[in-house]
Automatic annotation (TrEMBL):
PANTHER family: FIVE-SPAN TRANSMEMBRANE PROTEIN M83, POST-GPI ATTACHMENT TO PROTEINS FACTOR 6. Disulfide bonds join C461-C471, C486-C495. Belongs to the TMEM8 family. Residues 457-496 form the EGF-like domain. Keywords: Cell membrane, Disulfide bond, EGF-like domain, Membrane, Transmembrane, Transmembrane helix. The lineage of its organism: Eukaryota, Metazoa, Chordata, Craniata, Vertebrata. It is found in: Cell membrane. One of its GO terms (cellular component) is plasma membrane. The keyword Lyase does not apply. It comes from Smithornis capensis. This is TMM8A factor. It is a multi-pass membrane protein. The chain crosses the membrane at residues 509-533, 594-613, 619-638, 654-675, 681-700.
Length: 734
């Protein structure tokens, strides 16, 4: 009946989309689908601004169950040994309309975490100065509607249960709980009859839909004969949904009997008491009187293992050790080496079901230590799978279970080491299954045993993104996940793609250009000192010093040198640049000394405050420039009015100094604001340094007439000094 269904609505706030250059540009949405959900509907709403800067745009949305989607919009390479499966995605077009609304339906969705990631196309790479242009806002919002069955019937294992499908429009929903250590499941339908006494036709769907890959099983039954479906390795300790649809006429009901049975595989392992002793000894270390206990436990463990050869699998105890956010280490209690035989698989449990482990990378490494001398051609095959282990490694090597696809590994005599990297592993219990295989069959292996060292851990970023990347911890509400931000032209998920990477010589050239171009401030410093503008010369020296070492520290590659904290160098560089413009324009105004120095200090304090508020805002530079220009123009008008002559009065000053200086300044601003990109930054920004420094040397006014240039004092050999009398002589006119 309809009253048995409950609809629920979940919504998250809209996010402003960004052009894609790394995973941090993708906006993540995290939802939780409750149990017994039979229908999931996404409402995707995309919109853009109405300004002239807005154009048609394609928005890409990726879906995944259990973990954030692994995407690759740039087509870069993933690290070696990494497993990548394409995500389910769709595109939303914003062409003539300013809004796009799309619905996505998922029937029988898997319960748990669902993730959506939305982004714009690839970024153009242009460096935009904040405030010079207004980017078009592209917004995206995802809402989730679920239809949940409140009292879904439970199918008890081993007990035939009668059920009725009312009509094709109202399918039957039941669920069954899969116990732990279930090696197989068999679902059987029998005694199928219709109300119209016609041939029975039903379709059975087992399992839930997951994206990007769905392993839902479909069984079609026709006639009165019973039909069944067998599954290997169903998901342990989970509810399995079963939906039965009638394929008959619209008014006919179907009655049938359902029976679910499980094959349980009981493991053989060391006793919990021995595991507890070994755990205490490994944590506390050797203590007086504990040598005997350690010897007995170490001697009893192999005996216990050999006694359990007849079991269908052998489990090894594993301890999960949380190190940090999205950082876990798995430690084997019986040592780093795991005994592997050919009679039954060895199983290790890797717990990743906390809900906060799916934002990193799971790394599993195997190293073959020793094998029997007669088994030179033997191979240890391993499978890493979520939800349920692979228990039939000798029969198949594709690592598939009932509702998931695992990841294969193998080590042998030719290649004794293997590594697997699972990017963004889904939140679940993960299993590592190992078994010894022989080329001529299991009879060749006999009772042989191989030793395999297992290293398993969860890390935020594999290899910490390498030397050309930075691992960033991202957050969406309370969910944390990590991603790599690459530099120096490197790309890829872990910054291992060197297709567009800068060479070492190119990195050295970029560093030299950005640092040595600041030496062009030396002529401006010399001119300022020669004309007695000592405060201005000090400001230019400060700017040259910090700009040089800031760019030496700001390099993306290996040619980096930081003499102090990066943030401090950046702040000092920005402060020196703006203050240099401020003091230069005020010096051109020819104000009285007291007023000029008061404006120097007051302006520097205000600039320091504004940079602390917003370091990259365009008005932090344009504001002081415009205010200083207003003061300079007012002072020049005052001087011209007082002298009744254009100021500055000399045409040579205008032609040979002011006009070239103004041209250089405007060219520098144009290069800085409109020409810089990520690819040409190292030489366009170097041109900015050169043009600004040269413009300062041209724009500085000449020294005061009553001040003479610097000169060495004249000294006589007799060590008497001739002193110049600067006293003005007064003449009396009679």
């Amino acid at each position: 009946a309809d009253s048995l269904f409950v609809s629920e609505y979940f919504s998250q706030s809209a996010q402003k989309l960004s052009f894609y250059s790394w995973y941090g540009n993708a906006k993540l949405f995290h939802f939780h689908v409750p149990e017994d959900t039979v229908l999931l509907r996404w409402l995707l709403q995309a919109s853009r601004g109405k300004g002239p800067e807005c154009s048609s745009m394609e928005i890409t949305v990726h879906f995944r169950h259990g973990a954030p989607p692994v995407i690759n919009p740039l087509g870069t390479r993933f690290p070696a040994n990494a497993t990548v499966r394409p995500s389910y995605s769709l595109s939303l077009s914003l062409a003539s309309a300013v809004q796009n609304t799309t619905f996505v339906n998922v029937s029988s969705p898997a319960a748990g975490d669902w993730f959506l990631a939305a982004h714009l196309p690839q970024a153009a790479g242009r460096i935009e100065v904040k405030g010079f242009s207004t980017p078009c806002p592209y917004m995206f919002q995802a809402d989730m509607f679920v239809l949940r069955l409140t009292d879904m019937p439970v199918l008890e294992p081993g007990v035939p249960t009668p059920h009725t499908v009312v009509s094709p429009a109202k399918p039957l929903h039941v669920k069954v709980f899969v116990p732990k250590h279930a090696a197989g499941m068999r679902l059987e339908l029998r005694s199928c009859v219709t109300s119209e006494q016609k041939a029975c036709a039903v379709r059975v769907l087992l399992g839930s839909i997951t994206l990007p890959q769905s392993f839902q099983r479909i069984l079609t039954c026709t006639g009165n004969m019973s039909c069944s479906l067998a599954l290997d390795s169903p998901p342990w300790e989970k509810w399995l949904q079963i939906m039965v649809e009638s394929l008959g006429s619209a008014n006919a009901s179907v009655s049938l009997e359902m029976l679910a049975s499980f094959t349980v595989c009981r493991p053989g392992s060391a006793s919990s008491f021995l595991n507890f002793i070994s755990l205490n000894q490994s944590q506390a270390g050797a203590r007086p009187g504990s040598a005997g206990a350690a010897g007995s436990s170490a001697g009893e463990a192999p005996h216990n293992v050999s006694g359990q050869r007849s079991s269908c699998l052998h489990t090894q105890p594993v301890v999960r050790e949380d190190l940090d956010v999205v950082s876990v280490r798995y430690r084997l209690l019986n040592g780093p080496s795991v005994p592997v035989n050919s009679l039954s698989p060895t199983l290790l449990l890797l717990n990743l079901n906390t809900g906060m482990d799916s934002g990193g990378s799971l790394v599993v490494s195997l190293l073959l230590n020793k094998t029997s001398a007669s088994l030179a051609n033997a191979t240890v095959v391993a499978c890493v799978s979520p939800a349920s282990p692979v228990l039939s490694l000798n029969a198949t090597r594709n690592c598939s279970t009932a509702f998931s696809q695992g990841y294969p590994l193998s080590v042998g005599t030719p290649s004794a080491e293997a590594t697997l990297i699972v990017l963004y592993p889904q939140s679940d219990d993960w299993f590592l299954s190992l078994q010894l295989l022989c080329q001529k069959g299991q009879g060749e292996c006999g009772s042989a045993e191989a030793k395999v060292s297992v290293l398993a851990y969860l890390t935020p970023c594999f290899n910490d993104c390498g030397p050309y990347g930075q691992c960033s911890l991202l957050r969406r509400h309370g969910y944390l996940y990590a991603a790599c931000s690459c530099k120096a032209g490197w790309g890829g998920w872990s910054c291992t793609d060197d297709t567009k990477a800068q060479s070492i010589s190119a990195q050295n050239l970029a560093t030299l250009l950005l640092t040595l171009s600041n030496l062009m401030f030396l002529p401006a410093i010399a001119v300022a000192a020669y004309r007695y503008y000592l405060v201005e010369a000090s400001v230019y020296t400060y700017t040259m010093f910090f700009s040089t070492f800031y760019h030496a520290c700001d390099q993306p590659g290996v040619a980096v040198m930081c003499i102090m904290d990066y943030d401090t160098l950046q702040y000092c560089d920005f402060l020196g640049s703006v203050v240099s413009i401020w003091v230069t324009i005020l010096c051109m105004a020819r104000l009285k000394k007291v007023l000029k120095y008061v404006l120097f200090v007051l302006g520097t304090l205000l600039i320091a405050m504004s940079l602390q508020l917003d370091r990259r805002g365009v008005w932090n530079m344009m504001g002081p420039c415009l205010f200083a220009l207003v003061i300079m123009i007012a002072a020049w008008v005052h001087h011209g009015t007082k002298r009744r002559h254009c100021y500055p009065p000399s045409w040579k000053r205008w032609v040979f100094y002011l006009l070239p200086g103004i041209t250089l300044a405007f060219t520098a601003i144009s290069v800085y604001a409109f020409m810089e990109t990520n690819e040409n930054y190292y030489y366009t920004h170097s041109i900015w340094h050169v043009l600004v420094a040269c413009s300062v040397a041209f724009l500085l006014p000449p020294r005061d007439k009553h001040k003479k240039p610097w000169a060495w004092s004249q000294k006589l050999t007799c060590r008497y000094q001739i002193c110049q009398n600067d006293r003005e002589e007064l003449y009396a006119v009679t």
